[in-house]
Design a protein that fits this description.
5-stranded mixed β-sheet, alpha/beta, Spo0b-associated Gtp-binding Protein, Chain: A, 2 domains, rod-shaped, Rossmann fold
Amino acid sequence: MLIDEAKIIVQSGKGGDGAVAFNKNMMSLGPAGGSGGRGGSVYLEAVEDIGALRQFRAKKVFKAEDGANGKGQFCDGPDAADIVLKVPVGTAVENIDTKESYDLTEIGQKILVAEGGRGGRGNFHFRSSTNTTPRQFEYGYSGVRYSLSLTLKIIADVGLVGLPNAGKSTFLNLFTRANSKVANYPFTTLEPHLGAYYGLILADIPGLIEGASQGKGLGAKFLRHIERTRVLFHLVSAENEDVVAAYKTIRNELKAHSPQLTGKREYVFLTKRDVVPEKEFAEKLSALRKLNSECRALSMYDDGDCKEAEKVLNALEKQKAEGKLKLAEAPIKQAAEGSEEIYVHRLPERQAPRIGQVEVKPRMIRGKRVKGK
C-alpha cells in the first residue's frame, strides 16, 4: 500500500553549555573555558523511493541529540549528530506550527526543518582588560520542536486520468509492464501506480468521478498527484453513452481542484474500440474531436492504434531528452533562501543569551600572621 501522507514531530537538540575553567587551575594564568557544541539539527532529504513515507507509520517523533558541554583547556564540546529523514521526491512539507511550506522536487535536495541550538560560550570569551578572571559563561541555546505534515505529490511525466474503468491500468501495463491490477469493474485501481516507458515516467491515477474535488469517490486524495505531471493522457471509454459528458466531468473536476491543471497539455484517447459497434465508435470519436481535434482512437488489442500511441510517447520522450518538456510548477512556496545544495529554513529569532556566573567562595589561608612595620 502506498503511503502518501504522514504527520511527524521533529525536535532539534539543545546546544551545550559553556565552561568556566582556568589554566592549570591557577586563576592568575587566565580563563580557559571552552564553548558548548551545537545541538543536532533535523533535515529532510528527497530520495527516489516512492514508498519512503512508510517509515513514519511506526515512528512519528524524531529528536536530535544535545550538544556536549564545553571543558577546560579551551576544549569546545563536540557538536551533536544531525538527523536526516528520507522522503520521496515530490513531497510537500508544511510546518503546522509556523504555517511555512517547502517543496522537495529533486532527488538529493535537502531542507533544514529544525535547526539545532547554538552552543553557549565559555568564560574564555568573556575576558577583557578589566575582567581577567571572568566567571561568566553562556547556557546553550534550546532546540525547537515542530509538527510537520508530509504530503506526497507524485512527479511524473505523463498522468493518466479518466473515469473509473476507462482503461488507464491496461494502458500503463501495455506500454510499461507496470503490472497494475486490471479488472472489468470500477475502482480496480485504489492507489497511484508508476511505470517507465524508456525515459518517461507514467502515473496511473485512480479513477475520478463527479464531485471528486469535493471529496467524493476515491479520486479526492489523488487529485494532487496530477499537479506535477507534465502532460495529461485523458482516457475516455467508448462504453459511456455520452462520451462528451464523461470528458467534461473530468475536465471540470481538474478545474475545481486547481485551474492550473486544465492548462496542461492534454492528449485524449477514446478507448475500448473493440467492444462497441464500429459505427457507434466513429460517432463518439467525431463528437470528442469537436472538443479536442487530436482525439485518438485506441484499442489495446489493435497494433495500429498502439503504434499511434507509441508515436506520442516517443515524441514526448524526445522532448524530455532535449529539455523541452518542462516540469509543471506545484502551487506551493519554495523553501527560504539558502545554499545551492541545501534549502535552509531559518528559524525564528532565538531567545537572548542566558548568562551564568560561578560564585567564588572566600578561602581561608592558614599560616602565621605577619605584622606590618
